[in-house]
Amino acid sequence: MIRTLLLLLLTLLIAVTASLHLGVHIYGPATVWQALFGGADGSSEIIIRTLRLPRTLNAILTGAALSLSGLFMQAVTRNPLAEPGLLGVNAGAAFAVACGLVLLGVVSIAGIGLLAIAGALAAAALVFGLSGALGPAAGPTGILLVGVTVTAMLASLTQLFLLIDETALETLLFWLSGGFADRPLALLWIGLGALFIAFIGAAALATSIDALQLDDQSASGIGVDVARTRLSALTLSALLSAGAVAMSGPVAFLGLIAPHITRRLMPMRPGFLALALLAMLTGAIIAVLADILARLIVAPGEAPIGAVLAFVGVPFLIHLLRAKRMRGVNV
């Protein structure tokens, strides 16, 4: 555990260092140091201090938040394919942003971020309410089925709004593509707050979530309130996803792949709290590396972060589906 933690911290430090140095223009260590600590105001210093540093911090927080969100979902639903988008969070955020653009004329990134948070949390609350109406007979995967249904409905409504006002399409597409660049620093405090609350929640729920890895009946037999634990964990997952969506827009696959990569780094399965800490670091590393690739692969342009992550996420998802099929287990 300690060895893996140190390895991940070192890898994150290397990734952050590379992020500050690499891009359309590659800067040396002396230039980066002068930009961060020398207070100079040259063009290179401005690029490093006002563009690369904020987007790197954004990538760290978004990656950590989505990874922990996915870990919560996979743990309490016992479904390895669960990820934040299945709660309807991304679709709810997109619908709220579309409403804001068409009905209220909101075009600022900060305004879009606040609309995204409201829409994400409202969609998650709708999913929780509908799944609760199904009762315990729906099982741990019932909420995922409800989430897929709500996601499809909200996506259709979003398309309808865009047909009503096509001028909003360009702004919405910029936000829907996801990314870590050109985002207000003030939104990072939202993500940081969500991450802090969720990690405290992970510490409080860790023992109960570990018990849920058996089955609901066994967990109930040792005194775990299964329904309360699951609802609390999924609420924290929704909060993390809303914070990430506000910071960076919808970023796909991070919440799916980071928890699985983290588990594969451990020779023995740790408790949920230790796994949560390692997953946050893993998600941050993946996000920073993906952001570096987005700058380089189509330079001097920049690839959408979602497209970069899809190159890893889609094959990984296919691998998980094949593994589940070979074991004869339903997802």
UniProtKB/TrEMBL annotation:
SUPFAM superfamilies: ABC transporter involved in vitamin B12 uptake, BtuC
A GO molecular function held by the record: transmembrane transporter activity
Annotated InterPro entries: ABC_BtuC-like, ABC_transptr_permease_BtuC
Pfam short name (any one): FecCD
Membrane spanning residue stretches: 57-75, 87-107, 114-137, 143-164, 185-206, 238-259, 271-297, 303-321
Membrane topology: Multi-pass membrane protein
One GO cellular component term: plasma membrane
Alphabetized UniProt keyword annotations: Cell membrane, Membrane, Transmembrane, Transmembrane helix, Transport
Chief place of localization: membrane
Location of the protein in the cell: Cell membrane
CDD domains in alphabetical order: TM_ABC_iron-siderophores_like
Gene Ontology BP terms: siderophore-iron import into cell
Family, similarity comment: Belongs to the binding-protein-dependent transport system permease family. FecCD subfamily.
Protein name in UniProt: Iron complex transport system permease protein
